[in-house]
Design brief:
By secondary structure, the protein is mainly α. It is built from seven helices and two strands; from the N terminus they run ααααββααα. A two-stranded antiparallel ribbon has the order 1-2. The protein is elongated, with a radius of gyration of 23 Å.
């Protein structure tokens, strides 16, 4: 029986580009969008694998390990300094510190004229965690980005900015450590 016209109006569908899995005319290479998507997946999987290894070997999450390493390297650093060193929001740094103090990895003292200022120091237990943890403490992505030249970083920044605009992403989420996502 031939197709009958429907009484329902056709719902408009947004025009979509070709599927990411589609091949180029040469037939042997995925289209550029698919190649880039695969690279993003590889980056995310490398980061995820590193954080899983950290948690398995050290018993703490990646963000806590990074914070602990900063505190150990800079005894007496404050929460604001920790937030700047990790490029995260101060509230996020406070939450990390609170968890590490509770776990006995860090001590927080208030001394000096300004009793509001908190000075942080790694405990012996905290240093023991650092000794058994795989590096890099900041994570594999920050380490890899730091190894890139300035021109490459500038291109990445601009291109990722364009991608974020297309995604209409909330750029405030950039202050959340990957280990906490």
């Amino acid at each position: 029986m031939p197709d009958q016209p429907s009484d329902r109006p056709a719902s408009p569908r947004p025009a979509l580009s070709a599927p990411a899995s589609r091949r180029t005319a040469a037939g042997n290479q995925p289209e550029p969008a698919a190649r880039v998507l695969r690279r993003f997946r590889s980056v995310f999987n490398a980061v995820k694998t590193h954080f899983q290894q950290v948690e398995k070997q050290a018993g703490v999450g990646g963000a806590q390990l990074w914070a602990l390493s900063v505190i150990d390297a800079e005894p007496g650093i404050g929460v604001g300094g920790l937030a700047r060193a990790m490029d995260i929001h101060q509230t996020t740094a406070s939450n990390l510190v609170r968890a590490m103090v509770t776990a006995g990895l860090v001590v927080a003292t208030r001394d000096g004229a300004d009793r509001r200022a908190t000075r942080l120091q790694a405990t012996a237990d905290g240093r023991a965690v650092l000794e058994k943890a795989p590096g890099p403490f900041a994570g594999v992505l920050p380490q890899a980005l730091a190894a890139l030249d300035a021109d490459t970083l500038d291109r990445l920044d601009k291109d990722l900015g364009r991608l974020l605009a297309l995604l209409q992403a909330d750029e405030r989420t950039g202050g959340i450590p990957l280990a906490q996502m």
